[in-house]
Amino acid sequence: MSLRAEAPPATRLRRFDRTTRWVHRTTAALMLTCVATAACLYVPQLAELVGRRELVVRIHEWTGLALPVPLLAGLASRALRADLGRLNRFGSHDRRWLRAALRRDRTPGSRPAAKFNAGQKIYASWIAGATLVMLGTGLMMWFTHLTPLMWRTSATFVHDWLALTIGIVLAGHIGMALADPEARRGMRTGSVSREWAEREHPLWRP
């Protein structure tokens, strides 16, 4: 009686479904458009180079209004809802990951993470909250007849400074993505190597 050879484990693991990748790409495109048009409105050199301020303002307004749409549409996906649930849970291993990150400790096992690490969870929560604040303050600035002058002045202050902060945080997010080709491949194709998953997300069980 011959023994059946055990099948080798798959070398790539499924990380994101098509809907999740579509939501990420579409939201990223809208966010970058908002940042680019904001820069054209507030940086004099860019404003002179681009011109057509009224058109830039309209693109900025409608793109900002559309920002939540991809996520709301993607909620029809069970996989996306499951990922949002994971992003909302913060456990003891996430605190260990943060302590190791603050110490710049990269020794094996020092940064335990499930499907998402603590840094990704904090970023997702912050950018979601910032987007809602930007949407609210932007609407106050857009529909000027609906709110008192003091509210509009405060909204403009918050909107402008938060926009600058978002630009800096987004630059950091993009920089970290550029430094991790396998993470980018996971968002582009939906799958990652088993070796990468075991090293970066050892608590993740696909």
**Helix/strand order, N-terminal first:** EHHHHHHHHHEH
Specify the structural class. mainly alpha
Beta content: under 5%
Task: Note the main sheet.
Answer: 2 strands, antiparallel
Give the number of DSSP strands: 2
Low-confidence blocks of residues: 1-7
Number of domains: 1
Distance between the termini: 34 Å
CATH superfamily: Transmembrane di-heme cytochromes, Chain C
**CATH topology heading:** Fumarate Reductase Cytochrome B subunit
Q: Which CATH architecture is right?
A: Up-down Bundle
The residue-averaged pLDDT reads 91
Radius of gyration: 21 Å
Q: Biggest sheet: strands side by side, in what order?
A: 1-2
Number of helices: 10
- Binned, the helix content reads 55-70%
The best one-word shape is elongated
The CATH first-level class comes to Mainly Alpha
Pfam families: Ni_hydr_CYTB
Protein name: Cytochrome b/b6 domain-containing protein
GO biological process, one term: respiratory electron transport chain
GO molecular function: electron transfer activity; heme binding
In short:
This protein is mainly alpha-helical. It is built from ten helices and two strands. The chain crosses the membrane at residues 22-44, 64-80, 122-141, 161-179.
Topology:
Elements: E1 12-14, H1 18-42, H2 44-50, H3 53-66, H4 69-74, H5 78-87, H6 92-102, H7 118-142, H8 149-178, H9 181-189, E2 191-193, H10 194-200
Antiparallel strand pairs: 1-2
Helix pairs in contact: 1-2, 1-3, 7-8
GO molecular function, one term: electron transfer activity
Protein name: Cytochrome b/b6 domain-containing protein
Domain Cytochrome b561 bacterial/Ni-hydrogenase: 15-183
